[in-house]
Amino acid sequence: MNLNIDVKQPEERYSVMTLVGEVDAFTAPKLKEELLPLTQAEEAVVEVDLAAVNYMDSTGLGIFISALKSAKEYGATLKLTHMQERVYRLFKITGLTEIIDIDTSVKEGGS
Amino acid sequence: MSTLRLDLENYRDLLEEYVRTKDERALYQAEQFSKQSMQQNISPEEIINIHLRSLQEIYPEMPQLILDSFDFLMETMMSYGLAYQEFQSLREKQLELKSEIAVAANMQKTLLSTVKPEMEGLDIGAMSVPSKQMNGDYHHFVMDDEGSLGVAVADVIGKGVPAALCMSMIKYAMDSFPELRMDPKYILGSLNRVVERNVDSNMFITMMYGMYNTEDHTFSYSSAGHEPGFYYSKARDEFEEFSAPGLVLGVSEDSMYEQRQKQVEKGDMIVLLTDGVTECRKGDEFIEQEEILEVIRDNKDLPSQEIVENVYKYFERLQDFQLRDDFTLIVLKRDV
User: Fold this and answer.
1) What is the pLDDT of residues B29-40, one digit of tens each?
2) Which residues of A are less than 8 Å from B226 in CB distance?
3) pTM score, two decimals?
4) What's the CATH architecture for A3-102?
């Protein structure tokens, strides 16, 4: 399965990344390449929309941890939005829901 | 086709036969010819050359124009010939790498080996199967003087060689803890600091650490973001998930771990696993947790080692089964 990555920058220092597909060992490197630079800007806000991500494995999780660490370093903010339940379970088990800003509301207009 | 010879004469005969009869059999022989040519490192240009010479022998009257066109074709095929040579040398290199990784995997196996202890009153089964050559899962048993069993199950995120190397570090950190008898929450706390300081930021480790006390049959455990375990109560003939809150190792320097405890009755089982077990798939479908627990329940009266082996065998028998992640399963059963 593939992962489509779309990045929009409605304002300076504010990016919205929309992911469609699966985040796993095969797609994670591409995600890392795109996501990390976004978090490496002073006080940037990075939102990752996961409404259309139905599967994530632990490698994918690793990318978000790296992104979180790098965001912290630069004083940037990382937010994960519209996370599906199956994926949320993974963040919950690993304790990451305590340290990452996650919103699980279902996206308007269906997933 | 051992009788097939890679020479001009043979090629010519085959070609002639095919052109005359359009017989499938000759085509099949051509395929064999191509396979053998590959094995003997014969380049595409050479085959074209053989083809050309065969044609000349079969049709001595062939117009010069067609003969010339073969020079052109041969030139066009040159790059394929080179690519083929490169492929050959890459294949040799790959074999070399493969054997080096095999050596490393073997070394890792020795480094990380843990002895499954024989204990009075507790029947232990454990199995770990890597999805690739190097195992990113780790399990470890340690017994203290007072007859308590420490058990760790861990999964390094990030796969392959780096993950395996990272695991060796964890093992040595664990071996170096001064006191044998320590609470799971402190063990995880110390390991977290080791990992946080030493490991690359996108690698992290989940671990469940448990301590089984054989005197009062209590099981204390803490979890660092690890897949929940399952507790089987014989009296109720039911499984329940168990876990304790805690962040994965290596993310935050000052993580604290909560410790919980269970009273284990005779016939009860503690099932510890990694997500390679719960994320098994058949084809594109996930195997449901209930299905795994059902297999354990069906085998519950067998010795623990047979239980874990039967679960793996059950998976293996499923159609389209593929191990996507390393698979580790441990069963502790109180038997007196």
Assistant:
1) 888 888 888 888
2) 93
3) 0.74
4) 2-Layer Sandwich (3.30)
